[in-house]
Hints:
Layout: H1 3-12, H2 31-42, E1 46-50, H3 56-64, E2 73-77, H4 79-83, H5 85-88, E3 96-98, H6 103-115, E4 125-127
Parallel strand pairs: 1-2, 2-3
Antiparallel strand pairs: 3-4
Amino acid sequence: MFARDEYREQHLQVRPSKDALKPVSLHTTNVYDDFNKEVNEFEPDLIACSATEDTFPYAIKLLKNLSHKSKAKTILGGVFATFAPNKVIQYPEIDIICLGDGEYPLLELCNRMATGQNYTDIPNLWIKQ
């Protein structure tokens, strides 16, 4: 290490990372293939995504490109779903929209799905019929 780096570490209170000496490798798959693989192997009952306006097209592409057409329901939450639910619900890849904070509605949805109960009356959820 150069003296100048040591000076910076001392005066900015930055410590060298313990991971700094670990080898680095390049992962060359793409997120769509990786997502497909995970969904196919795990076979979930529910796929949850959160999206802003900028990331919404990527969420739709992830869901659209699933090679395994599972029985999984899809729920989209986040800023974009909250402020543009009428637009989001039109996409065939989306089954459910969560408006606003989603921690409790998502938990309730999972609990009801796990027990086979009706979940169409959960507050903050728009459910496609």
